[in-house]
Amino acid sequence: MPVAFSLRKVVAGAALALAAAACQSNSSSSETGAAATPTGATANSPLTAGTWRGVLALQGQQLPFLFDVATDGGRPTVTLRNGEERLKLDEITTAGDSTTIKLGVFDAALVVRAAGEGKLTGAWVKYDAGKPYRVPLTATTATAETPLFAGDAPDKSVFGDLKSGALFSTTFREDDGKTYPAVGFFTQDSVHSDRISGTFLTTTGDYRYLSGNLVKLADGSEHLRLSTFDGSHGFLFDGKLTKPGNINQLSGDFYSGLTGHETWTATLDPKAKLPDANALTGMKPGQKKLDFQFPNIEGGTLSINDPKYKGKVVVVQLLGSWCPNCMDETNFLAPWYAQNKQRGVEIIGLGYERASDDQASALRKLGKMKQRLNVGYDLALAGTADKDAAGKTLPQIQKVLAFPTTIFIDKKGEVRKIHTGFSGPGTGQYYEQEKADFNKTIDQLLAE
């Protein structure tokens, strides 16, 4: 995924951003010392059915997100809403006056308690790094009509041609001055004219489902504000319209987690595109094959030279259980493998985990991911969640630029293509092209 922070630097500033540091504690327990019990229709649970608007307070900003509370079999469920995405959370426990909502496959949680009628207070807690990582959280009941960001809606003429979707050539600038290109793709909601959804694509992935609205502030300035919260990432984009009344040019800030910050500029450009994701890295001169052996999640070892893979087309996925873009790719690969493995194709998932120094913990996280996403292909623990370190575990490759990275190997065991990043379902047409290119590559290798 775009890596800015969690993937670009694997810095805890962002994360689904997608990553960041957290309270280092046993993520299987709640935040309180009292005995945790599953919540159902319990009187002490602060979760009441309906739509809620949560707000994360980070870097002096407010990052809003919507979530729904419902019951399933008498137990509460929480569903995070990011644009069209729905992330159902069902690991919920109550201890004392606190309720802990585990955030899916990620080693993180929302810990909340009642703060009056229709109000919650608490924190977003990350468990997968050495330093404490807690972001204050408040939430209030809302409706489907509640906009994410407060403010007056600008005149409808501001929106231009966003109804059918529009591309923006975008440049992000890190605080150290380094820049990287991106493509913004945004669409105006057909019902609520001030609401916008879309994402930014980069050479290493996308910023997943972003949603928000255009607002006019008291000083007359007009802003496009977008956010996402997927349990691992908390992203906030604030872009000011350079010319009032015209969305063709924007500039602003990107906030990610506790400390991640970048600036960005975007210009409407129907021809905007990124460099070829299949040409960003490759094998070192003279190298044609990978050679690795890592511990697998079953307690044994996995090697690319195992007989199971001989004479087959093999896809090697570099991933992390902490990485939302990796989960997007896994959600595609898992059912694809179930439907296609009989064709002579194998997939190997190589996990690069934040807790790789604690092998047992890292393997448990991969195991949880395997179970929750119904992964039928082989998984192994390859190393730590750092691109440079990952490159050292696969010394035949020039460099690892992102998680995920996907390596295609032919029936002779030779690497034929290395694809950096993954354009997930939040990218719309780009996701469809991603899947089509994957299938085309597999079909070509199987036909040889």
Shape summary: globular
**Total DSSP E strands:** 26
CATH architecture of the largest domain: 3-Layer(aba) Sandwich
Distance between the termini: 31 Å
In terms of DSSP E residues, the strand content is 35-45%
Number of helical segments? 4
Q: What is the alpha-carbon Rg in Å?
A: 22 Å
Q: Major β-sheet, in short?
A: 10 strands, antiparallel
Overview of this structure, please?
Residues 1-22 form the signal peptide. This is Peroxiredoxin. Residues 283-447 form the Thioredoxin domain. InterPro entries: Redoxin (IPR013740), Thioredoxin-like_sf (IPR036249), Thioredoxin_domain (IPR013766), Thioredoxin_ResA/DsbE_sf (IPR050553). Keywords: Signal. By secondary structure, the chain is mainly beta. It folds into 3 domains: 37-142, Lipocalin (Beta Barrel), CATH 2.40.128; 156-268, Beta Barrel (Lipocalin), CATH 2.40.128.120; 293-447, 3-Layer(aba) Sandwich (Glutaredoxin), CATH 3.40.30. The protein contains 4 helices and 26 strands. The chain has helices at residues 324-340, 359-372, 387-393, 429-447; strands at 37-38, 50-58, 61-72, 75-82, 85-89, 92-95, 98-102, 108-114, 119-126, 133-142, 166-174, 179-188, 195-202, 205-206, 210-216, 222-229, 234-243, 246-256, 260-268, 293-295, 301-303, 313-319, 345-353, 378-384, 405-409, 415-420. The protein has a 10-stranded antiparallel β-sheet, with no helix packed on it. An 8-stranded antiparallel β-barrel has the order 11-12-13-15-16-17-18-19. A 5-stranded mixed β-sheet has the order 24-23-22-25-26. β13 (195-202) and β14 (205-206) form a beta hairpin. The relative contact order is 0.15. The model is unreliable at 1-43 (pLDDT under 50).
